[in-house]
Amino acid sequence: MKTKPIMLFSCVFFAAAFCLFVTLYQSHVRARAVIQIYDHANVIASSLWTFEKPSPTAYLTLAAKANGYQRIVVTDDKGRIFLDITGPVPTKTDELFLSMNLIPVYQLESVVRFEGRNIGAISAAWPCRTVYLYTYILFCIFLLLTGIWLFLKLLESNRRLESRVQMRTAELEKENRERKRAEAALRKYERIVSTSHDLMAMINRDYVYEAVNESMLKAHNKQREEIVGRRMREVMDEIVFLETIKPRVDQALSGQIVHYQEPFDFAGLGRRIMDVTYFPMFDETTRKVEGVVLNARDITETRKLEEQLIQSQKIESIGTLAGGVAHEINNPINGIMNYAQLILDRMEDGSAGREYAQEILHETGRVAKIVRNLLTFARHEKQSHSPARICDIVAAVLSLVQTVIRHDRIILELDIPQDLPKIKCRSQQMQQVLMNLMTNARDALNERYPEYSPEKRLRIVSGLIFKQDRKYIRTTVEDFGSGIPVEIEDRIFDPFFTTKSKETGTGLGLSISYGIVRDHRGELILESGQGRSTRFHIDLPVDNGWKLTGTQGA
Predict the structure, then answer these.
(1) How would you class 24 by CB atoms within 10 Å of its CB: exposed for 0-12, middle for 13-18, buried for 19 or more?
(2) Which of 249, 280, 298 finishes a domain?
(3) Residue 427 sits in which domain range?
């Protein structure tokens, strides 16, 4: 449908209709005006016969005002003017249209008759103001033509739009098919990344996270919108970012692959050792580095296993050395003790030599005790084992140390259920482990609280736990002393390492305890920190695989 032909036809049609309307309507209006002047003649006929002026004057004045006559003149049969009435003053618009000849002035005349006789005539100058109506009609026609033009334009635009929509729909369908194939491939890659336990992220040159996987969100304990779109310094500690992260990211942004291992503190994981790699991300066209891809793997457990292996090897090697040294020292020490006892027996009470002999006996006794511990540490004696209750083992240890604990005014808290499963163990060795841990706890409490304090507490708790789908009995020895500084936690199980004075500590207690627990296929775990309570967890499997047949080792 063409817009121009329709508009041309519409203009011709409305122009013809308007001209016809003007012609007919103008004739109709003039005819009615003639009839109206004839009516005026009939009204004033009697007044003209009697030459009474007031009544027709008032009537014709109202008629001139109502019909817009310029002038009304009434004459008698002799042609003399009976009444001459001037109409209302024309408006400025009327004057403008009159000057432009847009308002025609018709001379309306009629004979005045009374009782069948012509007694005079009436004439009126009437400006026909139909131009106002014609102007309004022309305005309406203009609006109508404008509406038709807009409607046609709308139809034409709609057809063009439909055509474009059809073309674009075909293009979109093709693009949609291609996008679905790409999305299917992308979802596979996303599934690989999202299910990975490694922490993965994409970082741009402004150090802003552009994308992260689920493991990254869990590590920082944040929602995706709290990380994506934010700078790295806003997500992590700023000091860590500036000192550890930023230099390595800058190195990767220069085009190098950066790899390092570092411990980090995460809000969702705690302190973890991470194996971190930064891969530079190159633009496909310019080949310039536009960002960095982060891949961080948690190697905490691997590192712990490595450290445990190193610790085990260290203990075994030192145990071999200690055994040899202990055997070499044991005989001379026994000789010194025997000679000291002989000297003591021959000395009189109160003599200086007797006091020296007693001191020799005391010190050699201390050395002999160290030697026995070294031999125990070295030999891992294959004592008999049998099912035992942890509550009985704890009770046996308390029978030896409870008096000392009470003397030191230490509050002892026990939570040892009687119904825990029995464990396969060497009871004497487990008593030795508990004795070492309780003695260390007592020393830590006395160091922090020389006198009585409500916080001077020693707590022993046992319970059933599950680790790797196996049942374990966990016995925890907890004291509320000064805690163990973080910097020495990794050395706490080393042989001969001690924080005590040389008169009170040998540095073998925790090493021997660690070896005993490991020999029982269990774990000895430390939880502590400077200024916090210290917990030692003894995790022993309910069934460690030992066969209860006579005297047999693990």
Answers:
(1) exposed
(2) 298
(3) 386-541
